[in-house]
């Protein structure tokens, strides 16, 4: 019996008990809405169109005001009738909907004690002046106004700023705001916003982007991007990380190859280590490096090209080093895929031409620079090399600057006449042929004479001249 009573009691109380917190939560949320970080009211909260004041304090939260349909002429007086002009009323949250303004001035003393300032869904051309010093606003929402310009220093005084919503405007730049501390920024739907200004914002510590994966910026004048291209913010963040995690003594940046509209864009990396006192090329490159500049160092060899991290490399610039040979291209992926190779002013003495040949028909561009290297020139190499150079003048762009290290100083390969260069050598070989011919003639004559003497001696029994006049040698008895 007691058990039944307990059960009955439980079933009666349980629904009430379980509903209670719900009801309480609902009431609390309503009140909290006024003072939550970003105050935002729907159009239904607007004052009645016939009301004398276009602003009103909300019934359930006295510290919050909603204004609607104000313009340049009415804004100030409406703020006054909303009690925003005095500190006494402790207005902390303001939402102005459908404001039509040429310029929104931020230097009004009315803003100073607000914690949340929301001016949305209106028509505002520009935002100018700066907030008063020590303004408390921590959430600023200027979304959906078609704003074209915010003066760069307008928001710098918002030392408590933690949420900045500038979405759905017509901005071209991210305005400056406080440098330190966490800020969430929303710039979704600003079709002309420049990537360089977004990139600058990404550099600030503690910044988070809302809608990072759906916000685009304009790449005009930003790295190698094609002008009027669009880049997603998360990609921009990747670029930023790339720049800040480069290999030592080098700088990394994106190298963008736009492979047409059908193929997805491939983001790749360019590494610049020029003038870093390197003695070797970097042992390991960041993933997807396609371009490397190691000019103006003291590098002696290209052997690092064999490292797997070099397998995507297409552009290599290594001017003004001490590289002695291009032999190390052998067996590398670079040899078959490269499009740009510059080895100006190195210490290369011999050029294996087959290492630079290009058989891939799909890519017609291949640029090679080898100027100011001093080759060891001899007749045969020069004959072949000069001929090769003449046929490759399209892609050895500075073929006129390749030098020959000769006795008479450095001479440009193109200025050397290989036939003249080889002349003395030809004379010498001709001379050898004459000697050999003479020697063969002499030998044949000698054998003929000896055979004739022997035949005469055998048949006539005497030795013809000069053998008869020769003094007898001790070994002659052997013949007799
Ligand atoms: C916005 O305000 C203007 C006058 O300032 C008014 O004509 C227009 O109807 C308002 N729009 C809305 C959606 O309330
Ligand atoms: C402004 O404050 C006064 C007195 O505190 C109050 O009577 C008045 O209703 C307030 N105005 C608005 C628009 O709420
Ligand atoms: C800012 O205002 C826009 C437009 O009314 C709204 O969609 C958005 O949610 C607001 N942002 C925040 C953080 O409240
Ligand atoms: C944005 O600004 C450009 C000119 O800067 C203008 O042509 C365009 O209509 C504007 N877009 C909006 C939505 O205001
Ligand atoms: C509005 O801002 C744009 C861009 O910053 C500027 O060119 C224009 O002169 C400004 N207009 C006014 C009225 O301040
Ligand atoms: C953005 O996209 C990346 C991958 O493209 C994903 O890892 C990340 O979680 C996404 N972020 C958000 C907020 O959706
Ligand atoms: C980077 O440069 C510094 C100073 O020029 C040098 O001491 C250091 O060895 C270099 N690091 C590498 C990896 O070359
Ligand atoms: C690498 O950096 C140097 C100076 O830091 C610059 O002169 C050079 O143009 C850069 N190389 C490339 C390929 O951009
Ligand atoms: C290369 O080394 C020589 C001597 O070792 C030095 O004088 C020169 O400055 C170095 N060059 C570069 C670009 O580091």
TrEMBL record:
The organism is Psylliodes chrysocephalus
Its main localization is membrane
- One GO CC term, this protein: membrane
Sorted alphabetically, which keywords does the UniProt record give? Glycoprotein, Membrane, Signal, Transmembrane, Transmembrane helix
What start and end residues bound the annotated signal peptide?
1-18
Q: Which InterPro entries match?
A: AMIGO, Leu-rich_rpt, LRR_dom_sf
Q: Which PANTHER family match?
A: AMPHOTERIN-INDUCED PROTEIN, SURFACE ANTIGEN BSPA-LIKE
For this entry, the protein name equals: Protein halfway
Domain of life where this protein originates: Eukaryota
Q: How does it sit in the membrane?
A: Single-pass type I membrane protein
Subcellular location as annotated = Membrane
């Amino acid at each position: 019996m007691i058990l039944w009573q307990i059960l009955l009691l439980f079933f009666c109380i349980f629904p009430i008990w379980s509903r209670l917190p719900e009801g309480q939560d609902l009431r609390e949320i309503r009140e909290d809405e006024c003072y939550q970080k970003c105050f935002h009211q729907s159009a239904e909260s607007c004052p009645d169109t016939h009301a004398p004041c276009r602003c009103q304090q909300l019934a359930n939260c006295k510290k919050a005001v909603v204004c609607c349909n104000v313009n340049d002429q009415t804004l100030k007086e409406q703020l006054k009738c909303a009690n925003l002009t005095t500190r006494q009323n402790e207005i902390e949250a303001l939402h102005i909907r459908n404001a039509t303004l040429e310029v929104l001035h931020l230097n009004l003393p009315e803003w100073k004690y607000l914690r949340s300032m929301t001016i949305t869904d209106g028509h505002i051309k520009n935002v100018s002046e700066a907030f008063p010093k020590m303004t408390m606003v921590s959430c600023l929402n200027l979304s959906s106004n078609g704003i074209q310009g915010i003066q760069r220093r307008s928001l710098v005084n918002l030392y408590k700023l933690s949420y900045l919503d500038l979405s759905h405007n017509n901005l071209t730049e991210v305005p400056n705001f406080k440098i330190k501390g966490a800020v969430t920024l929303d710039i979704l739907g600003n079709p002309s916003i420049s990537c360089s200004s977004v990139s600058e914002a990404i550099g600030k510590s503690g910044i988070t982007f809302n809608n990072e994966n759906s916000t685009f910026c304009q790449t005009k004048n930003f790295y190698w991007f094609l002008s009027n291209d669009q880049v997603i913010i998360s990609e921009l963040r990747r670029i930023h990380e790339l720049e800040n995690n480069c290999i030592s003594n080098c700088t990394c940046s994106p190298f963008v190859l736009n492979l047409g509209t059908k193929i997805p864009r491939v983001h790749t990396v360019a590494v610049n280590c020029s003038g870093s006192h390197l003695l070797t090329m970097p042992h390991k490159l960041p993933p997807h490096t396609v371009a490397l500049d190691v000019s103006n160092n003291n590098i002696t060899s290209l052997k690092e090209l064999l490292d797997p991290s070099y397998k995507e490399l297409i552009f290599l610039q290594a001017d003004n080093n001490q590289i002695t040979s291009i032999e190390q291209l052998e067996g590398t992926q670079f040899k078959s895929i490269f499009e740009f190779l510059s080895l100006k002013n190195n210490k290369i003495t011999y050029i294996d031409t087959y290492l630079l040949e290009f058989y891939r028909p799909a890519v017609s561009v291949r640029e090679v620079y080898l100027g100011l290297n001093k080759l060891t020139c001899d007749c045969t190499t020069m004959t072949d090399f000069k001929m090769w150079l003449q046929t490759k003048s399209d892609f050895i762009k500075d073929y006129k600057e390749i030098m020959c290290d000769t006795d008479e100083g450095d001479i440009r390969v193109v200025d050397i006449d290989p036939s003249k260069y080889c002349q003395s050598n030809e004379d010498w070989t001709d001379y050898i042929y004459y000697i050999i011919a003479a020697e063969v003639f002499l030998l044949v004559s000698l054998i003929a004479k000896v055979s004739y003497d022997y035949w005469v001696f055998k048949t006539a029994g005497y030795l013809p001249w000069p053998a008869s006049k020769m003094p007898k040698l001790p070994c002659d008895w052997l013949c007799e």
